[in-house]
């Protein structure tokens, strides 16, 4: 059997994708399908750490946060990712995956705090680690948290699983003429202001020489194809 292309990955799961076709929150069938995709690659022996977004519940820059103090709104966004992480870990448990949620902000009664050596130990034991609360700091995003945690755990790649199937010349949801890149350098993505990820996340991955693969979590089997090194999504590289 062909071996996976990676041994340890950081999977950034879109919070917004958790809504499925709903307007808000977590769609049960959608989270179960995402977890089934994760279970499939975990069976291949790949060490998986997950950063989950919060856009299905709250974003600090959302219209609903207008007029709020930005840092307060961002803390609400981070708490939203904790809720998603709890739901994700529970859905994993129901599908036979052992997961541990680690939070970047202290809420010990709910989840354990992020401690790097402990996270590495869990990964070596074959557990899925779900990093919650982003970086723990306002004015950042969970994409930057993915770049940060991916670097800390020496992941070979950051897999950004989102609602579109790669990086486009413009937002494909707004511009029907946008075309998809097979690969693109970090410098080009930053210079062209491509909004699929924020510039801080791109810059951190570039500096750490940590490649990113952007692909669709909505497309069945895409995660496994990426893990197997097959042609899927867009590679962002140095
Ligand atoms: N150049 C581009 N190529 C691809 N997608 C783009 C581009 N510019 C903007 N986008 C948009 O970026 C979105 C992905 O980033 P975004 O941070 O909004 O969502 P996410 O990370 O999937 O969700 P969450 O923040 O909830 O985790 C895509 O759904 C797409 O509409
Ligand atoms: O490090 C971080 C990560 C996130 N936030 C806030 O949470 C929301 C949700 O995260 P998304 O990446 O948009 O899914 C984000 O809009 C921020 O408000 C943060 O402050 N710091």
Note the beta-strand portion: 15-25%
**Strand elements, count:** 9
Bound molecules: adenosine-5'-triphosphate, the ligand O=c1ccn([C@@H]2O[C@H](COP(=O)(O)O)[C@@H](O)[C@H]2O)c(=O)[nH]1
Poorly predicted segments: none
User: What letter string, H or E per element, gives the SSE order?
Assistant: EHEHEEHEHEEHHEHE
Amino- and carboxy-terminal Cα gap? 31 Å
How would you characterize the overall build of this protein?
The chain is an alpha/beta fold. It is 34% helix and 18% strand. The protein has helices at residues 28-42, 70-94, 116-124, 142-152, 186-191, 199-207, 222-227, and strands at residues 8-13, 47-52, 99-103, 112-113, 128-132, 157-162, 183-185, 212-216, 234-237. Strands 4-3-5-2-1-6-8-9-7 form a 9-stranded mixed beta sheet, with helices on both faces. Helix 1 (28-42) packs across helix 2 (70-94). The two termini are 31 Å apart. The model has no long low-confidence stretch (mean pLDDT 97). Ligand LLZGTKA7 binds at residues 15, 53-55, 59-61, 73-74, 77-78, 80-81, 134-135, 137-138, 140-145. Its main location: cytoplasm. Pfam families: AA_kinase (PF00696). It is an enzyme of class 2 (transferase). ATP binds at residues 12-15, 55, 59, 162, 168, 171.
């Amino acid at each position: 059997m062909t071996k996976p292309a990676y041994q340890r990955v950081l999977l950034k799961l879109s919070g917004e994708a958790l809504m499925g076709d709903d307007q808000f929150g977590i769609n049960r069938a959608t989270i179960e399908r995402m977890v089934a995709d994760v279970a499939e690659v975990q069976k291949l022996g790949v060490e998986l750490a997950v950063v989950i977004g919060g856009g299905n519940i709250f974003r600090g820059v959302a219209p609903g946060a207008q007029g709020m103090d930005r840092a307060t709104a961002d803390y609400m966004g981070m708490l939203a990712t904790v809720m998603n992480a709890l739901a994700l870990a529970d859905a994993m448990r129901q599908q036979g995956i052992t997961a541990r949620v680690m939070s970047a902000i202290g809420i010990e009664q709910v989840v354990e705090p992020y401690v790097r050596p402990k996270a590495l130990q869990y990964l070596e034991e074959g557990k899925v680690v779900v990093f919650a609360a982003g970086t723990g700091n306002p004015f950042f995003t969970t994409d930057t948290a993915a770049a940060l945690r991916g670097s800390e755990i020496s992941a070979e790649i950051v897999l950004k699983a989102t609602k579109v199937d790669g990086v486009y010349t413009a937002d494909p949801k707004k511009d029907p003429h946008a075309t998809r890149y097979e690969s693109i350098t970090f410098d080009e993505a930053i210079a062209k202001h491509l909004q699929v990820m924020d510039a801080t996340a791109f810059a951190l991955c570039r500096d750490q020489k940590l490649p990113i693969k952007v692909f669709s979590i909505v497309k069945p089997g895409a995660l496994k194809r990426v893990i197997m090194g097959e042609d899927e999504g867009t590679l962002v590289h140095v």
